[in-house]
Amino acid sequence: MKLKSERSIMILAIALTTSAIRATLLARVWILLAIGLIADNFATALIGLNRHAVAQRWSSELIAMLPSSLHEFVDKAWVGPLGLAAPFLNLTEAHDFHDILLAILGIIVTLSIWGLIGSAICRIAVTRIADVPIPGVRSSIRYVVQQRITILGAICMPICLIIIMSTIVLLMGLVTKIPYVGPIAAWIMLPLSLIPAVTLLMTLLSCIFGWPMIMGAAVTEGDDMFDALSRSQCYLFQAPVSWALTLKVGILMQAIGYASIQAVSWALICILSSSFHDSRLTARPFEFKWFSKLPAPWTMPEISSNAFSTWISIITHLAASWPIGFAFVFPAAIYLTLRNRVDGIAPTEVYWPGKPEGEFAGRI
Fold first, then answer.
1. How far apart are CA 177 and CA 194, in angstroms?
2. Rg of the chain's alpha carbons, rounded to an integer?
3. Is 0.90 topped by the overall pTM?
4. Are 175 and 137 in contact (CB under 8 A)?
5. Residue 296 carries which DSSP code?
6. Measured distance CA(343)–CA(16) in Å, rounded
7. To 5 degrees, how large is the angle CA 358–CA 359–CA 362?
8. pLDDT tens across the length of the chain (364 residues)
9. End-to-end Cα, the chain, rounded Å
10. Residue 10 burial by CB count (10 A; 0-12/13-18/19+): exposed, middle or buried?
11. Cβ distance 219 to 119 under 8 Å?
């Protein structure tokens, strides 16, 4: 029975992840991703945050343990999404107030830009999975702006809870430093501090493993911020095996998807190069090599006076940035998988405002 259950989870996860990957191939998702990258590069340049450098530094040990033939693939497939967490990683390494301030500014930039753009991409993925009308670029952004309190509130609430619990534990620790009274108060403060400490630990675990699902829950469940937050976290702890299996499927599908996108981009460039060369518009055709490197995912395309070189740069940068887009569509797949596993709700049931027959719509 257990094997059958795990097999059904794998089948559902594969189906939903495949549908999510198909959403990343929509032109509207590429447009939103490009808008987010442009805004992010402009904002991070102002505060001096280099996402790619931070992500590479944190992933260097992992990459070193893999065969050298996989280094380039891992560097582009996993370092890109890891760059989204760059300001949070910088905060853990902060040594002074200046480092803390820059990390906080980076977190604000990340939540502001990718909370909006990422949620719009996730909403498109949810509607693509549910087989309901897929919103365009303006419609998806308009929806996210209308639901901003629900989405940003659900995303930011775990951070606020971490700050509150950390402050409480810190204040309890300071009480034990009071002369004469402190050592006696420690006998009372220590057991009492276990409550906020356990809450802090559980919140940290839910942020590390379940935070990506919050966005999927927020764009799926509608106006109830607390419902989206509680569902995403409860599903994580009620079905950890389902979460792990779905994540395993997602990593595998992401690797296949990225390899496919990379091959298609190089093939497209070769076709364009040959055509332009035959038309005498370029001096020589593009030399295709399977080990040709894509640009860093968090850099901008090179704009030059040569139209062919500029468009090659744009194509390769979009291909290199695909894993970042996948990082926002996969939470929809993993959330819908766990929701079906725990509550038995069909993946096609999503919040659809304005429907006369009810809040939720979808083909069941």
1. 18
2. 23
3. no
4. no
5. P
6. 17
7. 90
8. 344 467 788 888 888 888 888 889 899 999 999 999 999 999 999 988 889 888 888 887 777 777 766 666 677 778 888 889 889 888 888 888 888 899 889 999 998 899 889 999 989 998 888 877 888 899 889 988 888 888 888 888 888 888 888 888 888 888 888 887 778 877 877 788 888 888 777 777 777 777 778 888 888 877 677 777 778 778 888 888 888 888 888 888 888 888 888 888 888 887 777 776 655 555 555 555 554 677 888 888 888 777 777 888 888 888 889 999 999 999 888 888 888 888 888 887 777 665 544 444 444 3
9. 26
10. middle
11. yes
Tell me, what amino acid is at 343? Answer: D
Nearest CA among 95, 28, 129 for reference residue 333: 129
φ/ψ region of 224 (left if φ > 0, alpha if ψ in -120 to 50, else beta) reads beta
The encoded tokens of residue 208 equal 């590390």
d(CA 112, CA 231): 23
* CB atoms near residue 330 (< 10 Å): 29
What are the tokens at 16?
């939903």
Q: Count CB atoms within 10 A of the CB of residue 216.
A: 30
Residue with tokens 């894993």: 323
Instruction: Kindly list the distances between the CA atom of residue 327 and the CA atoms of 21, 43, 57, in Å, as whole numbers in the listed order.
Output: 10, 20, 20
Assess contact for 362 and 349: CB atoms under 8 A.
Answer: yes
Nearest to 242 by CA among 210, 198, 207, 204: 210
**Which run of H or of E encompasses 323?**
helix 307-343
